Amino acid sequence: MEQKSTRLETIRRLITTEKIGNQEELLQRLMAEGFDLTQATVSRDLKALRAGKRPDPEKGQVFFLPESDNEASPLDSVDNRLLAAGIRSIQFANQFAVIRTLPGYASSIAVHIDRSHRPEIAGTIAGDDTILLIPGESVSRETVTDTLRRIFPGLDQARFRR
To answer: In this structure, are strands 160-161 and 87-93 parallel, antiparallel, or unpaired?
Structure first.
């Protein structure tokens, strides 16, 4: 257990001080620091740390960590605009919203939506370029649309499909 806590602290340090774009890169950095582990272990550790990915102008996508369990990760307006730019379309299917994104953006956009802690949104499930947004009980499409516009200011009407 002591090695796991040391490994988690090392991952925290690496993610917050370097731009790490994928699990393989993180695995190589950890091995260089003396850890003997597999990519599956790295994946579990990232999940335990609640790591997400966000757009980066240099590397495309990089890992980030939330500031705390009770607070959303701080995303400045530049990051917010980059995330919003990754949204290609939003379409409703029954009460659910299906958000199509640029490849690789879905996870970071879903994390941002979930960490907004909006009562209108029960949660999200993300793949590589698609997010399933699950609204709260009895929440209308219009309310979900308004909420997404609050989370992503500047999200234009053209991305919402009927």
So the answer is: parallel
Instruction: Tell me if 129 sits within 8 A of 100, measured CB to CB.
Output: yes
Query: For 52-73, how does the pLDDT look when each residue is reduced to its tens digit (9 = 90+)?
Result: 888 888 888 888 887 644 334 4
Token pair, residue 32, equals 């260089």
Q: List the structure tokens of 123.
A: 């949660």
CB-CB neighbours of 141 under 10 Å: 16
Q: How many domains does the chain have?
A: 2
What distance in Å separates the CA atoms of residue 129 and residue 88, rounded to the nearest whole number?
A: 9
Supply the range of the domain harboring residue 102: 77-154
pTM over 0.85: no
Span 22-42, pLDDT tens digits? 999 999 999 999 999 999 999
Is the CB of residue 53 less than 8 Å from the CB of residue 64?
Answer: yes
